[in-house]
Amino acid sequence: MKLNSFLIILFIILKQIYAQCFEPIDEKRVKKVACGKWVTEKDINKVKINNNNKLVGGNETMFQVTFTCSTSDTVMCTKAQRAFVNAGNTIANTLKFKEKVLINATLMDFCAEENIETCALKHHIGLAGPQRLYSLLSDDDKIERIYPQALVKQFQFPEHPQYDEFDIFIRFNSRMDFYFTDDTTPIGPLQYDFEFTAIHELLHGLGFISYWQPYDEANNLKALCPAFALLNSGNDGAFDDIGENDLVTVKESIFDKYIIRLDKGTSITEYTKNIEQYVVNNQNATEEEFLQNLFPTMNEVYTLATTPKILGFLPHNSNVTDAVILETSIKYLAGSSLTHVDLSTYNNTSDYLMSYKSTPGKTVNDFISIGGNYSGGVIGPKTKLVLETIGYATESYPDPIKPQPFVKPQANLNSAAISSISNSVIFSQCYILICIIIILL
Ligand SMILES: *[C@@H]1O[C@H](CO)[C@@H](O)[C@H](O)[C@H]1NC(C)=O
Ligand SMILES: *[C@@H]1O[C@H](CO)[C@@H](O)[C@H](O)[C@H]1NC(C)=O
Ligand SMILES: *[C@@H]1O[C@H](CO)[C@@H](O)[C@H](O)[C@H]1NC(C)=O
Ligand SMILES: *[C@@H]1O[C@H](CO)[C@@H](O)[C@H](O)[C@H]1NC(C)=O
Ligand SMILES: *[C@@H]1O[C@H](CO)[C@@H](O)[C@H](O)[C@H]1NC(C)=O
Ligand SMILES: *[C@@H]1O[C@H](CO)[C@@H](O)[C@H](O)[C@H]1NC(C)=O
Ligand SMILES: *[C@@H]1O[C@H](CO)[C@@H](O)[C@H](O)[C@H]1NC(C)=O
User: Fold this and answer.
1) Are residues 262 and 136 in the same domain?
2) What is the model's pLDDT at position 48?
3) Atom of ligand 5 nearest to the CA of 345
4) Which keywords accompany this UniProt record (predicted)?
């Protein structure tokens, strides 16, 4: 079946354990890695001066793509590399990065012998996601939310855990029929523009993403829940699944913070708080009890996520009438619903880029032209507002809202879970979240 959609499947496991970090092995498993040491920036003033320089004008060097090509088609490799660099330039033209964003990009044959595990995804365009995520506290409502590493770096906190060497990973499947800007023949009616797809996915990796997800998709439960987060992993930190005795909570993403009901103007964080409060106070609840108490709430969010034009993203300095309408007009599709802009509103506009459905036979320039030749290019004005609101600086919005900085961990944090779940300021542990975006064609 051809779905023609950007389907994102999220496998989220968030851990909060001092000095333990995890990274994805594949879609379902994590491996333990060294978190690295605590880093204190030696010369904060120097950072600030550089920062001012960097704020002037876009500069592609702020968005660095490390590209690996593991197919024998060297012509395609060259084109793909150039497309990634162009995608990075496009993003760095809109967002004024203060710290470099580092991408690990790979073009590979998903079914080559050494890639047995990705072969299951041979009908997909690729995989993408943040390499690591962190949980940080919002000043205004004192709630911790999930931030991707690329965004956290932009806040230039003087002290922080050692960051992973890459911010975002992206793997494209060389078996797909892509159109590249360098191609001498025009785009075919069934070809997808590589660069356009790369920009779309990279913006998800930068934080254009909701962490509300189906509670029990296998059983078709009409219920959405924010990402489950582990507060304590037990003794060895070895991890395969959330165990019975693990303390858990739920967390939304920084993107979710700004999702509002367009009918009432209220924030969906109210639902997160509701669920969090129950989860935190009822760690011993059985699943039946959990559902008995929270199904109505989770079902209400599901209903919203499947009611046309009822949820929107409220950008900075704006009111409900300016909200960016999110995709809730389709049958619920994990990774498509909520995390994209409403197709029926934004198709053929300058903000088409972040809609869930890709259109074959059109190039980046076609989309810009169809959208009315927006001077900012393919990243439209509303898309830009969303990115500014979650924390990225732009020329017209140089001073975005930051969360509270990291706090250096204390030695003994085994009891930290308790204070953390009551939202006090303990968030210095390593957080891990696995988020793999699988792009279906
Ligand atoms: C990027 O910045 C460097 C130094 O600030 C400058 O030399 C270079 O020309 C810039 N590149 C572009 C494309 O603006
Ligand atoms: C980049 O990603 C590829 C595949 O996703 C992986 O094999 C490679 O080790 C990564 N590169 C680095 C330097 O981590
Ligand atoms: C949950 O169960 C554990 C042991 O099974 C117990 O130590 C703990 O006190 C219980 N917590 C609550 C809130 O009842
Ligand atoms: C909301 O925005 C609209 C359109 O920008 C404006 O006309 C209206 O006055 C604003 N309302 C408030 C309460 O700011
Ligand atoms: C977008 O434009 C296409 C082609 O002009 C048209 O068929 C389609 O209905 C338009 N979509 C919307 C939602 O306006
Ligand atoms: C969106 O617009 C494109 C033209 O850019 C058109 O081909 C496509 O059918 C439209 N999709 C919808 C759902 O209107
Ligand atoms: C954008 O510009 C192109 C070429 O200049 C033109 O053909 C096209 O009609 C313009 N698009 C819109 C929607 O005005």
Assistant:
1) no
2) 47
3) 13
4) Signal
Q: Whose CA is nearest to atom 7 of ligand 6?
A: 359
Rounded Cα–Cα distance for residues 94 and 300 (Å)? 36
pLDDT at 247: 65
**Residue where one domain finishes, among candidates 291, 324, 356:** 356
How close is the Cα of 363 to the center of ligand 1, in Å? 27
Strand order in the sheet with 101-108: 63-70, 101-108, 168-173, 124-130, 437-440
**Do 24 and 85 lie in a common domain?**
yes
Whole-angstrom Cα distance, residue 394 to residue 331?
35
| Domain shared by 157 and 297, yes or no | no
If pLDDT is split at 50, 70 and 90, which confidence band does 129 have?
confident
- State the amino acid at position 111 in one-letter form: C
Position 264 in a domain: yes
Whether 148 has a pLDDT exceeding 90, the answer reads no
Q: Is the CB of 242 under 6 A from ligand 6?
A: no
Ligand nearest to the backbone CA of 23:
2
Same domain as 186, residue 115? yes
Structural domain including 155 reads 15-211+402-440
| 31 pLDDT above the threshold of 60 | no
- CA 351–ligand 5 middle distance (angstroms): 14
Among 375, 393, 382, residue whose Cα is nearest residue 346:
382
Q: How many domains does the chain have?
A: 2
Ligand 3, pocket-test mutation among 277, 284, 286, most atoms within 8 A of CB: 284
Closest ligand 2 atom number to CA of residue 127: 5
pLDDT band, residue 125 (cuts 50/70/90): confident
CA of 104 to the centre of ligand 6 (A): 32
* Rg (alpha carbons) of the chain, rounded to whole number: 21
CA distances from 349 to 131, 189, 268, 373 (A): 31, 20, 27, 9
Q: What is the pLDDT of residues 230-262, one digit of tens each?
A: 654 333 333 444 555 566 678 889 999 999 999
Question: Does residue 281 have a pLDDT over 60?
Answer: yes
Enumerate residues lining ligand 4, CB below 6 A: 319, 321-322
- Tell me if 392 is assigned to some domain: no
Ligand (nearest to CA of 371): 7
Q: From the alpha carbon of 370, which atom of ligand 7 is closest?
A: 13
Query: Which pLDDT does position 359 carry in this prediction?
Result: 86
Q: CB neighbours (10 Å) of residue 348?
A: 12
Asked if the model's pLDDT at residue 181 lies above 90, the reply is: yes
* Domain shared by 121 and 22, yes or no: yes
